[in-house]
Design goal:
By secondary structure, the protein is mostly helical. The protein contains ten helices and no strands. Helix 1 runs antiparallel to helix 4 and helix 1 packs parallel to helix 5.
Length: 266
């Protein structure tokens, strides 16, 4: 893997801002008729058949903005999520490009790619996807499909991250949380997230189990240390009390002997 710099991260940030602005410029005061169901979910908080469960929660964060109509404010939520999707697509594209070039056969004549070139190619891929008319139609409407796409891309980014640095115990918790969030949104998103994470979990099942076992062993060792400290403190207190009782008995004997000696002298 090529080493990434601050320049690459700033470039990805500018990419996300560019896509977010482009999506925000397409927001209308009145939602299009093709997104009536999304408007019912986000503005009216109505039931639309069990899909788009995350739409009201994401849109409520923008409901208090002092701009435009309620439909426009909820559409701005989709624009912000679209910017996040652009950053995720660029990250996944760059990681897979670097990985493909690193494992390419030497006979192809492909040398190591620089971080700037990898970021540029990933940016082209991300802009081609997120500035497309179909994507922008969803990114500038209330209750668009970009929220489900963001959850699916987050799962793909997690799988890419695990492939880069190896599995950890926290990755299983993150994957389960993403699967739960996707299921709360809609079944199709849950299927996509499951398809993205299931092969990864199967491939690294031994490593994840080992990480969980090591974490459990670490917790067991910590509990053992705490118990050992408690036992030491209890023993110290018991010994201190025994010494105090022994000193008390010794003083009582000395006093008894002194009283006997005074009685004989009389």
């Amino acid at each position: 893997m090529a080493r990434r710099t601050l320049y690459d991260d700033v470039w990805l940030g500018l990419l996300a801002v560019t896509v977010g602005i482009a999506s925000a410029l397409g927001v209308r005061s009145v939602a299009p008729a093709s997104h009536d169901a999304g408007l019912v979910r986000t503005v009216g908080l109505g039931w639309t058949g069990g899909t788009g469960g995350l739409d009201p929660f994401v849109a409520s964060a923008f409901a208090l903005l002092p701009v435009g109509t309620e439909a426009a404010r909820t559409a701005l939520a989709s624009a912000v999520v679209s910017a996040l999707c652009a950053a995720l697509v660029a990250y996944v594209s760059r990681a897979h490009l670097e990985n493909a070039l690193a494992h390419a056969p030497r006979g192809l004549g492909l040398g190591p790619v620089t971080p700037g070139l990898a970021t540029g190619i990933a940016s082209v891929a991300a802009l081609s996807a997120t500035l497309a008319p179909a994507w922008q139609a969803e990114a500038s409407a209330p209750g668009g499909a970009v929220i489900g796409a963001a959850v699916a891309l987050a799962a793909l980014a997690l799988a890419t991250r695990v492939g880069e640095r190896g599995p950890r115990a926290a990755d299983a918790v993150t994957g389960a949380a993403l699967l739960g969030v996707a299921g709360a949104h809609e079944p199709a998103t849950a299927l996509v997230v499951f398809a993205a994470l299931a092969p990864l979990a199967w491939t690294h099942r031994a490593a994840l189990a080992g990480a969980g076992a090591s974490a459990g062993a670490g917790r067991a060792r910590a509990r053992g240390r705490v118990r050992a400290r408690v036992r030491v403190r209890v023993r110290v207190r018991v010994r201190a009390r025994a010494r105090a009782r022994a000193r008390g008995r010794a003083r009582a004997r000395v006093r008894a002997r002194g009283s006997r000696g005074r009685g004989r002298a009389r």
